[in-house]
Structures
1.
Amino acid sequence: MVLLTIASVLSLGLGRALAQSGVISPLARACPGYSNNTDVVCINRYASAMPPSFERQSSTGGVFSPNDTFVETQVPSDPSFGLVKNATFVVFDQRGSQILGPSPKLESVFASRNDSIHEGPVYVPSLDAIIFSLPHQGIYQQQIIHLNDSTPRLENYTTTPPVYAVNGGKLFNGKIYWAVEAGFSFPSPQNGSLVAQRPGIYELDPSTGEVTTLLNNYFGQAFNSPNDLWVDDQGDIWFTDSWYGYAINVTVYPVLRPATYRFRPSTGRVSIVEDSIAQPNGIGMSPDRRTMYISDTGVTDFENYPADGPLVTATTHWEEILLGSYIINKRPIYQAQTFGDDGFHVAQNGYLIAAEGGGVTVLSEYGEMLLRIETGFTVNNIQFAGPERKDLWVFGEGEIARVTWDLVGMANE
Ligand SMILES: *[C@@H]1O[C@H](CO)[C@@H](O)[C@H](O)[C@H]1NC(C)=O
Ligand SMILES: *[C@@H]1O[C@H](CO)[C@@H](O)[C@H](O)[C@H]1NC(C)=O
Ligand SMILES: *[C@@H]1O[C@H](CO)[C@@H](O)[C@H](O)[C@H]1NC(C)=O
Ligand SMILES: *[C@@H]1O[C@H](CO)[C@@H](O)[C@H](O)[C@H]1NC(C)=O
Ligand SMILES: *[C@@H]1O[C@H](CO)[C@@H](O)[C@H](O)[C@H]1NC(C)=O
Ligand SMILES: *[C@@H]1O[C@H](CO)[C@@H](O)[C@H](O)[C@H]1NC(C)=O
Ligand SMILES: *[C@@H]1O[C@H](CO)[C@@H](O)[C@H](O)[C@H]1NC(C)=O
Ligand SMILES: *[C@@H]1O[C@H](CO)[C@@H](O)[C@H](O)[C@H]1NC(C)=O
């Protein structure tokens, strides 16, 4: 009896101790150096041990829930988590605050169309402008943001011939290379006459607006819908070919399996380099040119996930590049903390900056979570711009915003 009582007291005490021990309190606090800036918050130990009553919504039925995020996690017994919901810059790692500079800022620059994603932004130093695209059924031109004046100016941008549904772009040797999704003919925005087009890789001369077709088939088979690309130092174009062109109804039902290819414009040769990623999306390369990164948005695989099943966050992979021609040793480096990673860019110091759900994620070169920027709108892609490549332009549904901080982008990235 006495023993039992002692035992139950012990177990009660022990139970309480077990539940509490290791739980991090507070989960969030003002960041050192940003004590008066509620826009910046630091997460203690990645919030790795929360009070057990935490609850995060999950997305089901193939539909992303805006509350299925780290910052919208409910943590009723830790009021400090309110700091996270109020902040724009959520710092997980000291390296995350080191790139913020003394007064980081996220500002909305343009309200934009909310019926289309915003993709393929490319900064053109000779124009001091960003050319980007609205890949959406019925939009047959691109847009340009002029940065050479006191305030940024947004205009429509129509090429010759016009191009339908650009989804990715990179600058190389003064030319823009475009990954283009649409395979349906469309009316020219200039004069209404029908323009025929196939999905593929196109080259734009930004000084004249003229567009040349570089690649539109694989031995007679049309590509599905090239999504994004990266150009290596010898001018070879590495591009992802996923199924989103069909998903947005700008081309026919996919024939080729989703894959990543290397295309050599100087000879016309195309070689497959990867075919195990569900839906290859963003693509980029480490500054030392040894590691290729490819994001996988198979989370949106409209054909293959069960309609009533849960959404699983998507992963980003890296692969080592060998002899400039092959990629080997694929391994996952990061699982999206929310939804999946879309377009991304590699900073001068090797960090990865990714468009991910309702914000921007900054990872170390090894895929470690350093910083989240919560933008309040779904982000599709990003681009460093300006003479020092320090402004990060953020393109998403309904909004174009700018982050000013201390991280520097690479030329041509
Ligand atoms: C923060 O605000 C307090 C009170 O307004 C002020 O005394 C302090 O100097 C500020 N600290 C910084 C780092 O700006
Ligand atoms: C998300 O959570 C907020 C409260 O935190 C709630 O008002 C809103 O309805 C939720 N949205 C969805 C789609 O569940
Ligand atoms: C978050 O912001 C709201 C509204 O400004 C404020 O009422 C609340 O106290 C803030 N929460 C924290 C934890 O600072
Ligand atoms: C999108 O914009 C249109 C026109 O500005 C507006 O009527 C509509 O409510 C917006 N839709 C959403 C989902 O914000
Ligand atoms: C900025 O560029 C545009 C387009 O090239 C040009 O029309 C405009 O005059 C330029 N503005 C300045 C201040 O140079
Ligand atoms: C771009 O063109 C569309 C029509 O194609 C027009 O509705 C829209 O206002 C134009 N946008 C800008 C920024 O000029
Ligand atoms: C319409 O514009 C295209 C360029 O966008 C041009 O190639 C074509 O000749 C024009 N057609 C007519 C009928 O003017
Ligand atoms: C898809 O696009 C084609 C060609 O532009 C059009 O005829 C068709 O109506 C579209 N389908 C839907 C569901 O919008």
2.
Amino acid sequence: MPLITVLILSLLGLVTANCQCGYQLTINNSSTPSIFTDLIETDFLHLTNISKDTDWRRQEFPVTAAAGRGPYGMNFTIQNVISNPILNATNWTGPGEFGGDPGLQLIVDSGIPENGYVQVAEMDSAREDMLWGTYRTAMKLSLVPGTCSAFFWEIDMEFLSSQFIPENNTYPVNLVLQSEQSVRAGYNAAATGNYVVANLPFDPTDGFHEYRIDFVPGNVLYYADGYLLAKMNTTAVPTSPGHMILTQWSNGNPLWSFGPPTSEATITVSYVKAYFNSSDTVRQKDWALRCTDSSAPGAICMIPDQLGPPDPSTNVSSGNSSASTYFFSNEKNMTVNQTIYHKNGITGINELNAYSSSLLTLMLLSSLVAILL
Ligand SMILES: *[C@@H]1O[C@H](CO)[C@@H](O)[C@H](O)[C@H]1NC(C)=O
Ligand SMILES: *[C@@H]1O[C@H](CO)[C@@H](O)[C@H](O)[C@H]1NC(C)=O
Ligand SMILES: *[C@@H]1O[C@H](CO)[C@@H](O)[C@H](O)[C@H]1NC(C)=O
Ligand SMILES: *[C@@H]1O[C@H](CO)[C@@H](O)[C@H](O)[C@H]1NC(C)=O
Ligand SMILES: *[C@@H]1O[C@H](CO)[C@@H](O)[C@H](O)[C@H]1NC(C)=O
Ligand SMILES: *[C@@H]1O[C@H](CO)[C@@H](O)[C@H](O)[C@H]1NC(C)=O
Ligand SMILES: *[C@@H]1O[C@H](CO)[C@@H](O)[C@H](O)[C@H]1NC(C)=O
Ligand SMILES: *[C@@H]1O[C@H](CO)[C@@H](O)[C@H](O)[C@H]1NC(C)=O
Ligand SMILES: *[C@@H]1O[C@H](CO)[C@@H](O)[C@H](O)[C@H]1NC(C)=O
Ligand SMILES: *[C@@H]1O[C@H](CO)[C@@H](O)[C@H](O)[C@H]1NC(C)=O
Ligand SMILES: *[C@@H]1O[C@H](CO)[C@@H](O)[C@H](O)[C@H]1NC(C)=O
Ligand SMILES: *[C@@H]1O[C@H](CO)[C@@H](O)[C@H](O)[C@H]1NC(C)=O
């Protein structure tokens, strides 16, 4: 290979960001992997203040008892969504700043509410353009009976603490295809179709575990710590974009959430990782602009599987932690042109400029070569 070609290639290589064409995952052992163009990653173990993270919106709205179809109303309040980052910000283990499990807390208050409204918690992603993707969160659930904890995006993983039976090691999860509206309306998911109850292969209250939904046209797969819980292949699989929701609520409905809990119920979230395609034409255009050659080395990055619990309480003494999981956004150059709060890659929005300046360098070099020849 002529020296000048090597020089040109290495110049290009230096400015080519990784993952510019997307993040790849093989879903359902398909012969062709799925590629997702966008990502949102949030490390709640190290996020100091949720009110500052523009990727997330703590929810504030009341639901009347009648609208919620329960004996009680619910008040979704930002006071019940609290950051409790790891005290020692340089490591992945140890207690939170306010003691207890580190991470983002979603709280349901205890007791019969005087005003008829149970104080509950919900946080939504700011982006609402999320379509096909793999959606993941690590959470430690509460053993206090009488709440419903959920991670969803229309497609839903719901945990009813009243269904947890430690005595016989039974920890069900309700896997549901239903709309956010029907959840807020307190509908009993069991009454809808497209509903599977699976047993978790672990105690979800003993530590942090990853819950995951893979979603491509016509197909949904549910996982826990990389263990396949269920697959759904029905016409009920949504086809429209949505947003992510993390919530813990209770309205006393004896068919679903039960409660309100007799003591405060806290669930803790350590991360959310979402790799998805955007329904937003601006984001689609951004992808087309940055992905000039999907066969270039590093243009498509593999999304790793989380196999096993990502738990900050493990391995404190051995000096490492299973909570230190992989984040593309912790690498220098793998989230270029993404929209994640405070982390869009070291070359960030200037990547295209960097590319143009390298083209300029190339042109200068070529003219130099031309002159020399
Ligand atoms: C993919 O294939 C492996 C090996 O046969 C199997 O264990 C796994 O459950 C399959 N995954 C899905 C999602 O069906
Ligand atoms: C996501 O979008 C990219 C770019 O348009 C496309 O190549 C890819 O096939 C899409 N992924 C899925 C699962 O549809
Ligand atoms: C988080 O930031 C908000 C807005 O700046 C501030 O009002 C609040 O006190 C902060 N909370 C903590 C725990 O630092
Ligand atoms: C909801 O919570 C907010 C903030 O704590 C409070 O000001 C409001 O009175 C509550 N509303 C109800 C109906 O409980
Ligand atoms: C935080 O942890 C690091 C090791 O990860 C240690 O060197 C440092 O002293 C700790 N800081 C505090 C305040 O304990
Ligand atoms: C666990 O307890 C529940 C409720 O008592 C019962 O329905 C279920 O059969 C038990 N499961 C096992 C494996 O014993
Ligand atoms: C089931 O999945 C296949 C792709 O694996 C898809 O073509 C088909 O439409 C799906 N079926 C339904 C009923 O959505
Ligand atoms: C997964 O693959 C199997 C075999 O290719 C197919 O029958 C099924 O519809 C696919 N999708 C789901 C969600 O199971
Ligand atoms: C993490 O920080 C805590 C508190 O400072 C410290 O006790 C612990 O040893 C640190 N762990 C590691 C693995 O560095
Ligand atoms: C804890 O650390 C040991 C040694 O570093 C390792 O073998 C083990 O797999 C770790 N366990 C977890 C749960 O990360
Ligand atoms: C991206 O950064 C990693 C280190 O974080 C480095 O190994 C890799 O070579 C870089 N890739 C490019 C294309 O700059
Ligand atoms: C992505 O790149 C486009 C130009 O191609 C730019 O207009 C847009 O602001 C960038 N977005 C982010 C989040 O960096």
